[in-house]
Amino acid sequence: MSTRTALRDTFAGKRHRPALASAVSVCLSAAVLSGCSSLTPAHEIGPSGSGSPSAQQMVRVLETLLPEGRFSGQRGRGLGSGSTAPSASLVYGRDGNEAKVSVSLYRWGVPVPPLFLQCPDTAYAPFSRCTETRVPGGGKLTLDRSPAKGSEPSGVEVLTAQFTYGGGEQVVVTQTEMRPGQWPAGGDTSLPLAGGRLSAVATSPRWKPVLSRMPKPPDSERAEATGGVPGKEIARALAALLPTGLRVRQPAGSDGFGHVVVDDGRGESLVAANVQRWKPGDTRMAKVFEKSTTLPDGTRVRIAEEPSPHGGKGAVERSVDVLRDDGFRVVVMAVNARGYGLRASRADPALTLRQLRRIALDGTWRHLAR
Questions:
Q1: What confidence tier does 205 reach under pLDDT thresholds 50, 70, 90?
Q2: Which one of 169, 194, 213 terminates a domain?
Q3: What is the average pLDDT across 332-344?
Q4: Residue 180: CB partners within 8 Å, gap ≥ 6?
Q5: Which of 97, 109, 225, 279 supports an S-S bond with 217, CB 3.0-4.6 Å?
Q6: Phi-psi domain of 283 (left: phi exceeds 0; alpha: psi -120 through 50; beta: other)
Q7: Organism's domain of life (predicted)?
Q8: What is the side-by-side order of every strand in the sheet holding 169-177?
Q9: Per-residue pLDDT for 20 more than 60?
Q10: Are the beta carbons of 365 and 283 closer than 8 angstroms?
Q11: Is 250 helix (H, G, I), strand (E, B) or coil?
């Protein structure tokens, strides 16, 4: 594992979600990703029992939950189809609009990893428009409208309704434009299904018989690297440690990862912090800090300035990575764009390496993680 890869994969909630499966693969492949718990959904744990819903039944349920319209291109996958989630998809047309509508079912261990419960992180999905709603009975509904290509604010639009039951069962319904269109300012006119209708499909009890047949996975355990600090607390602490003269907005984050967008009058810049705990002497951290400076108290400091590993034309990331001798780790970084994967909006990140180093070594982080 390269140092560059290890640094890139430290962030919780690092992917925005057009497809849940991509987020699963990110967590399973990242050696030092924080915030990923036991991420094996039930459909990957063992075979289903007899009488499992078929691909045709999955498609039929989806069709019955949609308003009257034109259906074509139906495809499905039943519960007994190996390691892939039960799913169905079709092309749906109504009122002159057409979109691909798909549904996938999952069952997670509890507590469900925050990455699969919340709206996409705006550091990685800066053009996401998302709401979260708690539903009586312990369920949570998220409704997200994002461009299919997260780094561009136009083009093909994707509307996703995700409903997660308190027991870890999850229904994800997506609607994707067949052709790029003009994004409406506040409505759903570019897609045949409004957000409320898509949410009704996700929350329908018609999926419960399928979910109940999926084997129950083991309960989740918090990943060893996770600092356990809520992202918004990290964002608030980060804002308080910033130099004066910056306009600070959009505090956000996920477990162990917080960020803000700052502007010093020369353009917007993302500033983020990751807080983790590792076992002292962990070999993965030894690899990350091979080329670092050691302070008198044993603290190791790694400083880097390089093209952003998340992409974006002209994007540069500055980072300071601090590891205390007891395994407490803080990474503070700044990018010359308001989000990862975006084209640079200014010549350099808003903070210097010296400023990032001061923030990363500040005692606030230790107090915050207690």
A1: very high
A2: 213
A3: 96
A4: 154, 155, 156
A5: 109
A6: alpha
A7: Bacteria
A8: 70-77, 87-94, 97-107, 169-177, 157-164, 139-147, 129-135
A9: no
A10: no
A11: strand
CB-based contact 53:86 (threshold 8 Å): yes
Say if 23 falls within a structural domain. no
Tell whether 206 and 234 lie within a shared domain: no
Q: What are phi and psi of 37, to 5 degrees?
A: -95, -145
Q: Please enumerate in sequence order all residues whose Cβ is within 8 A of that of 253, keeping only pairs 6 or more positions apart, or say none.
A: 12, 13, 121, 123, 230, 231, 232, 234, 235, 259, 272
pLDDT at 35 over 50: no
Please check whether residue 20 lies inside any domain of the structure: no
What is the tens place of the pLDDT at every residue in 148-168?
A: 887 777 778 899 999 999 999
What pTM, to 2 d.p., does this model score?
A: 0.76
Question: Which residues lie below 8 Å from residue 105, measured CB to CB, with a gap of 6+?
Answer: 43, 85, 86, 87, 169, 170, 171, 172, 207, 210, 211, 214
| Tally of domains within the chain | 2
- The helix (H) or strand (E) run that includes residue 366 is helix 364-368
Shared-domain flag, residues 232 and 189: no
CA dihedral 221, 224, 228, 232 (to 10 degrees): -110
Is residue 96 domain-shared with residue 192, that is, in the same domain? Answer: yes
| Statement to judge: residues 155 and 291 lie in one domain | no
> 326 with 280: CB under 8 angstroms?
yes
SS3 310: coil
Clarify whether residues 45 and 156 are in a common domain.
Answer: yes
User: Which pair of tokens denotes residue 93?
Assistant: 């047309």
**From CA 99, how far away is CA 174, in angstroms rounded?**
10
CATH code of the domain in which 255 resides: 3.40.1000
Quote the tokens at residue 57.
């039944």
Closest by Cα among 238, 240, 241, 245 to 260: 238
Q: What residue numbers bound the domain in which 259 lies?
A: 223-368
Q: Of the residues 213, 245, 269, which one is the last residue of a structural domain?
A: 213
